[in-house]
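Retro notes - structure team

What went well: the batch runner handled both jobs without manual restarts.
What didn't: labels got mixed up in the shared folder, which is why I'm recording both outputs here explicitly, each with its sequence directly above its tokens.

Job 1
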Amino acid sequence: MTAPLRVLIVDDDDLMRAGLRAVLSSDDTIQVVDEAADGAQAVARVREARPDVVLMDVRMPRVDGIAATREITASTSQARILILTTFEDEDYIFGALHAGASGFLLKRTRPEQLIAAIHAVAEGDSLLSPSVTRTVIERMARSPQPDPADGRRLRSLTPREREVLDLVARGLANAEIATTLVVEESTVKTHLKRIMAKLELRDRVQAVILAYETGLVRPGEPPVPGVPRP
């Protein structure tokens, strides 16, 4: 039997932490290993409890969720960070994603969606709520000219790896990418591992951000397999 996923809940609201614990404890695939009331506690509890996933609020006293996310992802911890917040503020979204969060959900998310998101993030996938995805795309549409240094990083990819990155940035799952490119799903996973290693990325969220910021993918433009981008 597979061991349950270890989850740390971080929120400064006692009632919210209790509610999340009740929701997650009802699922036998998840074990809530600890709680924290602010970012400073979260960093300490990650070292002690060694969770697989951290459910992280953003606005908290002392150390906020973005700063805590940055510190956790920069450490040796393998914990994935899933932001769970009331706020859709653009700066919060991009601050969290750039800090290394693997997902960003709103607190109005249904319990079953939250549980599914925890599993997805633990498996190395990324997850954004639909409204957050729209915010990301709109922000990228207004983004400044790509950094030449990032463009040079992309040149380390093979044409097929660039195709895979393009499709990841458009929100396709591994199985959908495999169907689009007419390859095995295992081949897609291999390409993704190489992309992450070459570009020094932690997960798919960072890959999506880089793809838009470098101009590899442009909002509203359909994918063109096999055609090189800047």
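Job 2
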Amino acid sequence: MPDFRPDDEASVAETVRAARIDGPLEITGGATKRGLGRPTQTAATLSLDRLSGITLYEPAELVISAKAGTPLAELESTLAAGGQRLAFDPPRLTALWEGDPARASIGAVVAANLAGPRRIHAGAARDSLIGVRLVNGRGEIVKNGGRVMKNVTGYDLVKLMAGAFGTLGVLTEVTFKVLPSPETEATLIFSGLSEADAVACLSAGLGSPWEVTGAAHLPGWAGSPAETLLRLEGFEAQMTYRAGALAAHLVAHGVPDVLRGEASAARWREVGELAPLGDVSALAVWKISTRPASGPSVAAALRRAGVSRLFLDWGGGLIWAACEPAGDAQAGPIRAALAAHGGHATLMKAPDEIRAAAEVFHPLPTPVMELTRKIKDAFDPARVLNPGRMYAGV
């Protein structure tokens, strides 16, 4: 299969225009997330790995722009040198897919709308994204948004492209609003809580005035107790007081241990990269979203269905679960468990044959699916960009 590797936006547009005759394209960046979504049947690969580099960084304005193939690590390193960071804590998720994590691109983060544990506080990638440049399925270069957040009329392409998985346009440049990095952090750890008590603890912490930026519940393994984690970030001078005040606010749930500084950061990196699931190299992995209050009930239903390896993030509203990669990888029982509570489930990792046969993304109601097809028609009428990556025929 041909592999096109353009090094500028005009060449990307030319490649897409040619694909309207020559056949559809699989869009990749660093090729670390090719296992996410349904397998595509394409005539060639359009790789953006040469479309790389930071094009604008204005620390005083809290704005950074980069070409879509820029490694996430390069962006984070540049921001760190300026005492800043991407607010949404983008994960690599190297436990799920093959590829060199150093090649993970910022365009893929946007295309998949990824976010780590801090999403509960700062939102997802789309909430920090303020501008995009892209090539649509007609081969037209489109710009939307800019260097400030503002309201728009018509399609908000900035938000639409985040989570479209390359099915509506080939991202060529992205612009983010960034935030200052905190001076330090602390994590309160409550031991031995049940999932219901843990979510009550997390909800109370998130509803407190102490600005919790991470809220997860990890199961106990091999006799170790379950851990309920709440993170605080800010100035060193504040941290002892805020951690003490939050612990006092949550005293009904016990007396927590406290991790400080790098020890706290390391624990949250483990959560973001799914370490609590253990080795998932031979398993299927699901990302399940629901209301935080429903998290324990959904988790209990999953266990009754035989999905026992799981943990809760985002205050209980996100459940990461792993199961055997057989049949539909438990798609039926998992989505049935959600039916009574609301939410959606995405199959993040599974063999190609399962992803080709099962619904990887949560099935959409008929009116929403019709709207999705109409949006695809508007941006990519010839179906040349990642066809079928999200839904068959789209």
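One thing worth noting from job 2: The radius of gyration is 21 Å.
We'll revisit the folder naming next retro.
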